[in-house]
TrEMBL record:
InterPro entries listed in its UniProt record: IolE/XylAMocC-like, TAT_signal, Xyl_isomerase-like_sf, Xyl_isomerase-like_TIM-brl
Matching PANTHER family: HYDROXYPYRUVATE ISOMERASE, INOSOSE DEHYDRATASE
Signal peptide start-end: 1-22
Statement: the UniProt record of this protein carries the keyword Translocase: no
Xylose isomerase-like TIM barrel domain span: 52-270
Translocase is among the record's keywords: no
SUPFAM superfamilies membership: Xylose isomerase-like
UniProt-recorded name of the protein: Xylose isomerase-like TIM barrel
Alphabetical keyword list: Isomerase, Signal
Record-level Gene Ontology MF annotations: isomerase activity
Amino acid sequence: MPTRRTFLATTAATALARSAFAGDASAESESNSICVFTKPFQSLTFDELAQQTAAVGFGGIEAPIRPGGHIEPEAVPDKLPELVESLRKQNLKLTVLTSNINDASDPITESVLSTTASLGIRYYRMQYFKYDEGKSITKQIDQWNRRMKDLAALNKQLGITGVYQNHAGRNYFGAAIWDLHRGLDGIDPNDIGVAYDIRHAAVEAGMSWPINFQLIRDHVQVVYVKDFTWGESGLTNVPLGQGEVDPNFFSMLKKANFRGPISLHQEYIDHRNPKLVPQHWAAIKSDFQTLKFWL
């Protein structure tokens, strides 16, 4: 099993340049690769997943590697290389690994991250923090800042980047964006950055989401794309281009010279029913065309 010591010697020589924005001359060369979040396809074999992803035209996948995902965390050292090999055969990458990691002291953390780094996977999405509304908000943010600094130190050693997604919701740390900005204070975005989700940002901020984006943009390493609309019954996920997400966001990304990957999420069809897999692919193909048009 890979260990931290193993990778301390190797990652310094092999680490990729890590910057999502072109203001840093070390920005990654493969700009704006588009991957697909594969939560609806966990019933497929690794080879089936890779073949169908390649057929649609994506450059890679964002894969749930967490309890209930494609691979359980304990099985990562054995199974993750198999998934990466299936993708490699189709000239695809595992672009983002979606994890349940947010604590460097958890025994499973180093096992998962060292294996991930050894396979050349650069990004992993972190598990969320959630507020206890009975406690001081600012004290909780400062506590998570210290915890993320410990995780960032491990990421730096391994040459890997954690990304924290801004997720809409009453008690999600990062939903408001300003709190995530404060929580990342003193942390190199190359060690822990942001997976900026335009759908969740628009849900929480309404018309003021561009200001929040400007606040957090220097931390953004990955961009998530999906859409929603408001109705009488509340919020509903919808196909890309049929909701409230503003296409002008992509003009902002272009002006900012964002060079990181973009992950397409499709959440308006039930991902729990394997019989709906063909419908998911059809929906994703349509959303992919919309995304490419916007870009």
